[in-house]
Amino acid sequence: MKARELRSAFTTFFEKRGHEVVPSASLIPHDDTILFTNAGMVPFKNYFLGIENPPYRRATTVQKCVRAGGKHNDLDEVGRTSRHLTFFEMMGNFSFGDYFKEEAIPLAWEFFTDVLQLDPERLWVTVHHTDEEAAQIWEQKVGVPPDRIQRLGEDNWWRMADTGPNGPCSEIFWDKGEKYGPPGGPENPASDERYIEIWNLVFMQFDQQSDGEQIPLPRPSIDTGAGLERVLSVMQNVDAVWELDEFQTLLEAAEVITGVAKDSENSTLVSLQILVDHARSSSFLISDGVIPSNEDRGYVLRRIVRRAVRHAYLLGVEKPIMSELADAVITLMDDAYPDLAENKNLIKDSLQREEEGFRRTLSAGMKILEGHLSEVNENESLSGEVAFQLHDTYGFPMELTQEIAAERKIAINLEQFNDAMALQRERGKADLSLKGNFNYYDSVLQKAVEKFPATSFKGYIEHETT
Q: Per mean pLDDT, which range of 55-59, 179-183, 189-193, 434-438 is the poorest?
């Protein structure tokens, strides 16, 4: 099964069951509490909170998501694990006070076992240990054996925030087989690679108050999320998202663009995987209106792009390549997301400018960093002032310097770095204060004039310069 087939199968299944098919929302949320749309429920948050009335009682989406900043941040894990991505797609079905557990649970099971034809003997479920209602539905209505229903703790309780809608959740896991770990189900921490979560059903039934009191919601709702890439990895029987057909296509393109073969050595493969993932996330972010900058979303995008450029540098690539990688992403995914093609020039131009700007200082900055890292003794940390210099002069995001140092198992003196940043901010405020005073401009001009010898004007009598 291909990605486009899974998207279609999912939304068609729920559309036939009365759900409105809602297009993916922007990665820029209408929510000041988060940087990016990081889950399928984000566009519906005000419906769950009761702030807005939904135009439909049940909905289904395939939502584009980014987790690269704030609480949900997978950026540093990308390329080094089998399933972390900064950009991914979340399939979901939602009920806004329409149906609840007794319908949501059988719907999920029906889609997996009837539509996708997954072996029910390899599916496990977890519920919160207080949620006997969900456990009974799984056992009595769906028919899951009791020994494959596990009761867990806080991992099976979902909260939107410290206050507001929340409730227990039930997760569906796929058993990859005994060669991936010991038995025991998802509750066994030693079996993390064997049992992978492929769908989370959230039962929003309480409204938590600031004093901790849980008040039952007048209209309990459903929020579910199934990672498209996770489900595809089961359907295509692969161990890692990088082995999925779409990622293989992008990795092959990255090989051609960089001139480096992905099977040469492990570190090379990691760098190519990072390039592919970061090209995906940066392309989608720019298409949705994020531009590299030093603030908020723009800073996260800048960090993504510069991390990718550093890995291109590690591969020995001396030319800008992010724009070419974006081309491959757009060609592969514009059928599902036409806005990529519509914003192609913006995406490519933004990436080209950002990469060219960073490449001008990358080599010099790397030499400085490598020199200082080689001088750090065991149990010592890298000076925060060095990290600040790299940030201020060479455009190295602090997190990039931390990542490079961590590869040598070296920490950075963050207190020194923060002190240097604070001092720079104070200087900036002082400069702005001075520049608001006309006397400041007078003094600057006076000093500039004093650097040059006096001249006499002869423009009325001479018409040539010497």
A: 434-438
> E strands of 51-159, at which residues?
58-66, 68-69, 72-73, 87-95, 123-128, 149-152, 157-159
β-strand pairing of 123-128 with 68-69: unpaired
Contact 310, 322 (CB under 8 A): no
Coil, helix or strand at residue 42: helix
Both tokens assigned to 29: 């949320």
For the chain, give every domain's residue range.
Answer: 3-235, 244-374, 375-466
Helix (H) or strand (E) segment spanning residue 277: helix 266-287
Q: Which amino acid is at 71?
A: K
Cβ-count burial 21-60 (b if 16+ within 10 Å, e if not): ebebbbbebeeeeebbbbbbbbbbbebbebeeebeebbbb
Residue 405 neighbours by CB under 8 Å, 6+ apart: 369, 373, 382, 411, 412
Closest CA relative to residue 284, chosen from 336, 249, 233: 336
Whether this prediction's pTM lies above 0.70 is answered by yes
Q: For residue 186, give both structure tokens.
A: 């998802």
Taking residues 443-456, what's their average pLDDT? 50
What are the tokens at 225?
Answer: 């999320």
Tokens found for residue 343: 């914003």
Task: Name the burial class of residue 177, with classes exposed (0-12), middle (13-18) and buried (19+) by CB atoms within 10 angstroms of its CB.
Answer: exposed
d(CA 352, CA 188): 47
Task: Determine the CATH number of domain 3-235.
Answer: 3.30.930.10
Q: Please, where are the H alpha helices in 125-185?
A: 132-136
In DSSP terms, 226 is beta-bridged to: 91
pLDDT, tens digit (0-9, with 9 covering 90-100), for 361-402: 888 888 999 999 999 888 889 999 999 999 988 888 888 899
Return the higher-pLDDT residue of 444 and 49.
Answer: 49
R_g (Cα) of the chain, nearest Å: 27
User: So what's the pLDDT on residue 218?
Assistant: 81
